[in-house]
Design brief:
There is one protein chain. The protein is elongated. The chain is built from 16 helices and 8 strands. The chain is mainly α. The protein folds into 3 domains: 122 residues, no CATH class; 61 residues, no CATH class; 145 residues, no CATH class. Strand 4 and strand 5 form a beta hairpin. The strands form 3 sheets. It has a 3-stranded antiparallel sheet with strand order 1-2-3. Strands 6-8-7 form a 3-stranded mixed sheet.
Amino acid sequence: MLFPREIDLHPFRVLLLLGMTDCTSEELHALQVPDLEFSAQGVRIVQTKERAERVRADFHLVDAAEDTSDEPGDKVYPGRGAWHVPGLLRRLVEVNALTREVFNCQPWLFTAVESRRSVRMDAALAAFQDPGRRFTHWLERHSGVGRPFPKGVSRPHDVRRLRKTARTTRVVALGGTLTDLAGDDRSVRVFQQHYAHGTTAHVLAGAAMNRAQSKVFAKVTGKATLVRPEDEAHLGEPEVAAALGVTPEQGADLRDGELDMGVSNCKDPHNSPHSVPGKLCHVAPAMCMICDNAVVFVSQLPQQLLLFDHIQHMRDVLPPKTWHSVWARQEAALKQVFEECADHIDAARKVIEEQALTLNLPLGMRTEYDR
C-alpha cells in the first residue's frame, strides 16, 4: 500500500502509450523524472531512442477544460487531474514520490518496489519480465465476467501492440500517402513492414472497401419502374409525371416512345449511373432492368421475354461465374416484372409468335457481354 509494484505500473504504461503516439515503449520505459518539465501549458518530455541514436523533445498540451490541478507548474502533484498525458505523468511522479524518498535509487519514472526472494524490499527500474509481473499477467487479472476485458485479449500479449494500435489510429485519422503515414520517426519501408500489415489496419481497410463498394452498388443497382397500360396515356400530366420522378416533358416523351431504349424506356439516357454524366448510356439494354432510370411498359413485354430467353441461352454458353456476374441480376429483375405482369405474359408470347419478333441487341453488347 506504500510503494507501487511492477504490476501496479502497467495501467500507467498502457494509458501513456495510447496518449503519446510518437513514443515507443522503450522510450517511455527509459524516462526519468528529470526528463519531464511541467508548465502551465503542459509537459515537455525529452525522449531518447537508443536504436536510432536520437534524442528529441515532445510537448504535450494540457486541456484547460479538463485540468483541475491547483499548481500545474509543481512537479509534486497531489493526485488529482485529467486523463491526458500531463495529468497521467503528474500522477505517476506522485505515486513514486515515497519510493524515491525511502530508497536510494535512480529517479526512473517507472520505479517499482518488489520483495526479492521474500527477504527484503528493493526499489529498481521495473522490468515487466519476471513471473507474475508481465503484461500478460496484468491482462489476465482484468479478464472475465464483470472485468474490463470480459472476453480476454488476443495473444501475443505484448505492450508494443499498443504502438501499432496508435499507428493504426493515425492511419485512420490522416489517410494520405505512405510517406505521410510513416511520419518523421521512421521510413516508409519500416512502416510497410511493421505497421501497415497489422490486423486492425486490414480490418479497417476492408471496412472502407466494403463501404465504397456498397455506395457504388447502391448507385448502379436499381429497379425498373413498371407503368400499367391505363397510366401510360397520362404520363404527360404534372401529377403523374411527378409521381414517376420526371418532368411533364419527360413524361410526354416516355408516353410517345421517344425514350425507348429497346427492352424499356429511360427517364434520362444522358444521365445514367452506368455511364459518364452527359454522355448517352452505352450499356442499354443490357443493364436497363437494374437501373433506376428504366421505365417499363406492358407493351414492351415481348422484347423483355426475348431478352429473358437470350439470358437463359447465355447460361449454357458462358462459364457459370461469368454468367452470374453479367446476367444474374438482370434475370432476377425480369422475373420480378413477369410476376407483376403475369396476366399479360401469354398475350406477349402470342405477339412474339404472330409477328415473328426478334431481339434487337447492339453489336457492342454482344461483343462485351456475350463472351
